[in-house]
Design a protein that fits this description.
By secondary structure, the protein is α/β, with parallel strands linked by helices. Helices cover about 45% and strands about 15% of the residues. The chain has 23 helices and 22 strands.
Length: about 650
């Protein structure tokens, strides 16, 4: 029987028909044992008509097992649900035998199919016990016999509390992973030196490379739930110096059906090492603000736009309109919403530079809130294509803002960037102009224009993290533009949570800046990512300094030299105090810039610098314009 179950030529998994055949055979054998047990092992086959009843029992077993589908489970992955299916199949079989026996007796088939009811009861109990037990026996044999050639992976569990013990149980009961827990690590001096299930608890301070090599430890699994983020980061960062991989278990609330699955244990992500506490937003006003509203999201297929859409989908909105010009990405988002059974959403494939198309969308929907995340954001590309940067980041944004005013949209929330602060590149300058234009329009109608400004988001399209991952996959080197370059970082969910929060508290005209913690040195980030991949710097993967790209600066800022902040009720969100502008004059300059056509890149950037005088090019061909700064100030936009 076992060779059939574990035949390697059966595509790893045993055929369900073989399982069905084995179950029926066992059921018939157990029927015979039930007879023996009932008649004190003095069975007279002729008197009891046993042989005539066997075919009927086999047929009834076939019907029961097929109806319930108890034979469909994969034996090597047998679990509680499979045991329940066997129980119901055995129950149905007993019911069939009981009912048919009563019927046969009433219709003079008493002598042929006379199955004593006591035997049916004994057979039922034996079926439940043996069929369930057989599955777990086969599962055990598979794990112990067929996997015997695989050397177990030795791991340590950091945390000998309840979460650690549950992790231990999950790992030792795993069917797909051959793992041996050789010890626990725990900071409690009361636990150090003790054992759990003969597994010793060690002091993490005494964990050395020699111990790891001696015990062939390949992984440490962090299994601590009640710990502050910065403490977890500190522990993980210290462990990264050792020659092993560090993994984390998810929070308890993310366990599937309250149980931890081995597949949920993941390698440490770089966002876990950014030395800052994740931001959690709990604002009942947000529910009220979004309830019953029609919400348009531009750039919805991008990393920020899609996350905003996903977060809003958890509220009681009236309708979400997902707008983007990226066809494939928008389709993926649409399918994702369909899979997640999101209701009341519409997909609009459109370019924010197409005025007529935007007008039809604003006319079709009675929009209440607009989240503007669409933008060109790649600094080097925009440095070489300033006209396109203006067409999207300024002209496209202005079209949306003007239509918002015309249709009395309640709030327009624009996603800006820290690169708009004292910009050194075309992209940052165009985003700063969009900020200024929003402030100009805020006094012209009912629409409240709110701007949110933050730094880099982890994992977004074009960010440094995906680039490093691709480079690591190709064995390096990792490319960093400057050894001292730093950036602010925030996870995509965090950024979008704060965007929603700022949208709620905004009364129009504000520029909200987010607390992004301490800036991170990209060179250090690269080294940590190499460590996370299980390799060493520079032995396995090196880091290459390539030089600053056009328009790039060493340090990003969240405030201009003329701005300070005003605190809000959320300590993670501040309001930038902006200087007063001559709204009529600046708005006219922006509108003239938008109408500019058939002019050179130098002329375009010159006009940008007039509108944004703090725009000083860095490492760019446009630096020569700053040398004539006195003349630039006197230029008129024609």
């Amino acid at each position: 029987m076992i060779p059939f179950l574990f035949n390697k030529n059966s595509a790893t998994y045993t055929s369900r028909w073989i399982i069905l055949f084995i179950d029926i055979s066992l059921s018939v054998q157990l029927f015979f044992i039930a007879y023996l047990a009932r008649f004190d092992f003095t069975l007279n086959f002729q008197d009891q008509n046993f042989l005539k009843q066997v075919p009927f029992v086999a047929l009834a077993s076939l019907i029961s097992f097929v109806i319930i589908g108890s034979y469909k489970g994969i034996v090597r992955h047998t679990g509680i649900k499979d045991a329940i299916h066997v129980f119901w199949a055995s129950t149905l079989l007993a019911i069939i035998l009981f009912v048919t026996t009563i019927i046969f007796r009433n219709y003079n088939f008493y002598q042929v199919y006379n199955i004593p009811l006591s035997i049916i009861s004994i057979h039922y109990l034996l079926n439940v016990l043996v069929l369930i037990a057989s599955r777990f026996v086969f599962k055990y044999l598979f794990n112990r016999v067929l996997n015997a050639y695989k050397a177990p992976k030795n791991v340590l569990i950091y945390g000998a509390g309840s979460a650690g013990l549950l992790t231990y149980t999950t790992l030792t009961n795993s069917n797909q992973h051959k793992i041996k827990v050789i010890g626990f690590l725990d900071d409690s001096k009361y636990k150090i030196g003790k054992q759990f299930n003969r597994v010793k608890i060690y002091d993490p301070k005494k964990l050395t490379a020699k111990f790891i090599e001696k015990n062939n430890v390949s992984e440490i699994i962090m299994s601590i739930q009640n710990i502050k983020p910065f403490q977890l980061f500190k522990k993980v960062d210290s462990l990264m110096k050792l020659p092993l991989k560090v993994k984390l278990i998810p929070p308890v609330e993310k366990w599937i059906d309250g149980e931890l699955n081995v597949g949920q244990i993941q390698e440490v992500k770089i966002e876990d090492l950014l030395d800052r506490s994740p931001i959690q937003i709990e604002n009942p006003i947000l529910q009220k603000e979004l309830e019953g509203k029609v919400i348009l999201i531009t750039g919805a297929a991008g990393s920020i736009g899609s996350e905003i859409a996903h977060q809003i989908s958890n509220y009681s909105y009236k309708q979400i309109i997902l707008l983007d010009q990226a066809e494939s990405d928008l389709y993926d988002l649409q399918q994702d919403f369909i899979r997640n059974k999101v209701k009341n959403f519409t997909v609009e494939l459109a370019d924010i530079r197409n005025e007529e198309r935007l007008k039809s969308i604003f006319t079709q929907y009675n929009i209440d809130l607009l989240f503007h995340a669409a933008a060109y954001k790649h600094v080097p590309l925009m440095e070489n294509n300033p006209y396109e940067a203006i067409r999207v980041n300024v002209y496209g944004a202005s079209l949306l803002m003007n239509l918002s005013l015309q249709h009395n949209i309640r709030k327009f929330i624009m996603i800006s960037t820290d690169k708009a602060v004292n910009p050194t590149n075309v992209m940052g300058a165009t985003k700063r102009i969009a900020e200024i234009y929003a402030n100009c329009l805020n006094v012209e109608g009912k629409t409240k224009f709110v701007t949110t400004r933050f730094g880099n988001v982890l994992g977004s399209n074009g960010s440094v993290i995906p680039l490093f991952k691709k480079q690591i996959e190709k064995d390096g080197p990792l490319t960093v533009t400057h050894k001292e370059i730093t950036r602010f970082f925030m996870t995509i969910p965090e950024a979008c949570q704060l965007v929603l929060e700022a949208g709620v508290m905004g009364n129009g005209g504000e520029i909200f800046v987010f607390d992004m913690g301490e800036s991170v040195k990209i060179f250090d980030l690269a080294k940590k990512m190499i460590q996370l991949s299980g390799m060493k710097y520079p032995e396995d993967i090196d880091i290459e300094i390539t030089g600053l790209r056009p328009g790039e600066k060493l340090y990003e800022e969240l405030l201009t030299n003329e701005e300070n902040t005003i605190p809000t009720y959320n300590k993670k969100i501040m309001i930038a105090k902006t200087k007063n502008l001559n709204i009529k004059e600046i708005k006219q300059k922006i509108e003239n810039l938008i109408l500019s056509k058939n002019i050179s890149n130098i002329e375009i950037v010159t006009k940008l610098k007039v509108i944004v005088p703090e725009y000083i090019s860095n490492n760019s061909k446009f630096e020569k314009l700053d040398k004539e700064k006195g003349k630039v100030k006197k230029l008129k936009i024609s």
